[in-house]
Amino acid sequence: GTIPVLAAQEPPRTLPPSITGAKPPMPPAVSPASGVQTQTAADSPSARFQNLQSFPPETVRAIYSVSAAANWLSRMNQASGRFLPGLDPTLRAPVVAENDLHQAFAARALAEAARFTGQKEFTARAAQAVLALLSRTKPDPADPTRRVPDVSKECNQVAFAAVLALAVYALPNPDARLTAQAEELCNFLRSQVGADGAIQSSEPAATADVYPGLVIQALAALHRAKLDPAKQAALAKVIGHYRGIFQARPTTMLAATLLPGIVDFCLQTKDATAAAAVAEMADYLCGCQYTRSDARSAAWVGGFRPGQLPAQLNAEPGADSALAAQALARAVQVTRQVAPDLNRFQRYRQAAVDGLAFARRLQFSDENADHFEKGFRARFLTGGVHLTPTDGTLRIDAAAHLVTAQLAFLQSGAEGPVE
Fold first, then answer.
1. For 320, what's the count of Cα atoms within 13 Å in the CB-facing half-sphere?
2. Lowest mean pLDDT among 75-84, 121-130, 151-160, 377-386
3. In whole angstroms, what is the distance from residue 350 CA to residue 344 CA?
4. Cα–Cα nearest to 105, from 179, 28, 163, 187
5. Fewest CB atoms within 10 Å of the CB: 130, 165, 321, 389?
6. Are 275 and 339 in contact (CB under 8 A)?
7. 17 pLDDT band (50/70/90 cuts)?
């Protein structure tokens, strides 16, 4: 059959007024989705970045990059609430393969961007995306307090449930109905935890190092929203189990996905054992980062190899390096608030800055995509993130990881004003 060709349809969205200080043109109409309350830009976390001159260059770059990536995700969001999965720029053809986990990552990232910027369009589109994905879940016939995924076997169901719950919690002021459904998803996740703290999943092996950390992140978010000592003790057991797994078989993705949830738990509880786990995993990630002296290509500097085993030392880094950078940005918070450590603060901060710089080099801009036709570039490329330095395929999960990582950095305490 013929390959569908993408055509330019509309210009890119503008930067949030809270960042530029300018009034943007009116965006295309977006029907508000039920379930969220409005938040203004003046009330949003981005309002503190009005005076960009007082912040370090890496913080300024992160602000503009996260806005471009969030705008790209907003443009990829369709009337159905689902996102265009991605595209091959050289063929001007969409990526056909659907992946509900990628959809959930994109919904979460756009919800986080909505909360950060106060942009109504981001809020509306994120809420529509969340509602569309919630339609892929259903009440558990065996327990009405649980909500179970109804997605294909190619999608890791516990990972999908975890990221969808995180997307709900990330929305600006989600209503009680949405948070109740997020809690039901978390109840499903809790039902998958065994007595030893292991999370049951017979899903695709490709996400074996990813889903445990996503589940811990979701359960930590539930605990933050609704305190429960019994659930806190159960979460501590899960964290302990996967700390043991990490110690026995460490990988970059296992550390990168476990860390944010453990940091969240640690900030809530001030638990010294969790703080020690954070230091172990963050130290390991720093050792997985390519430097100028060991990177095979200058384009790899700041990216992360899959691990520290000999066979992993020369693998090309990709867009998932943003997950490691996000984890290190979160670890910075522990070195400031729970276990003060100036040396680790500086090391983790620099590793996060370098990792985000690598991930931003995978992002299309007007400068590095000027060989594409202007209208096509503006509609489909600018702000999008391709998979590796040598693979130009754009995908929504790659852009989502960059958004989430940079927002973690911008709210970590490492982004602070120049003193």
1. 17
2. 151-160
3. 10
4. 163
5. 389
6. yes
7. very low
Element spanning 133, H or E: helix 120-134
Type of residue at 40: T
- Under 8 Å between Cβ of 102 and 152: no
> Bridge partners of 363?
385
Residue 12 token pair: 């890119």
Q: What's the residue count for the chain? A: 419
> Residue 302, Cα to own-chain centre: how many angstroms?
18
CA gap 265, 275 in Å, rounded = 9
Distance CA 106, CA 129 (A): 9
Residues 6+ apart with CB under 8 A from 33: 81, 124, 127, 128, 130, 131
Q: Are 231 and 190 in contact (CB under 8 A)?
A: yes
Question: What are the E-state strand segments in 86-240?
Answer: 86-88, 93-94, 137-140, 143-149
- Kindly state the helix (H) or strand (E) to which residue 140 belongs, with its residue range: strand 137-140
Q: What is the DSSP letter of 207?
A: G
**DSSP 8-state secondary structure symbol assigned to residue 298:** G
The pTM score is: 0.91
User: SS3 for 416?
Assistant: coil
**13: nearest Cα among 86, 50, 80, 67:** 67
Assess contact for 171 and 119: CB atoms under 8 A.
no
Burial annotation 304-315 (CB, 10 A radius, 16+ → b, else e)? bbbbeeeeeeeb
Confidence class of residue 1 from pLDDT cuts 50, 70 and 90?
very low
- CA 3, 403, 165, 174 dihedral sign is negative
For 311-360, the DSSP string reads GGTTPPP-TTHHHHHHHHHHHHHHHHHTS--HHHHHHHHHHHHHHHHHHH
pLDDT at 20 over 80: no
Distance CA 208, CA 201 (A): 9
Residue 51 has what DSSP assignment? -
Q: Which amino acid is at 288?
A: C
Name the DSSP letter for residue 377. Answer: I
User: Distance between CA atoms of 134 and 165, rounded to whole angstroms?
Assistant: 9
User: Do 261 and 220 form a contact (C-beta atoms < 8 A)?
Assistant: yes
What is the torsion angle, in degrees rounded to the nearest 10, for the CA atoms of residue 218, residue 225, residue 283 and residue 245? -40
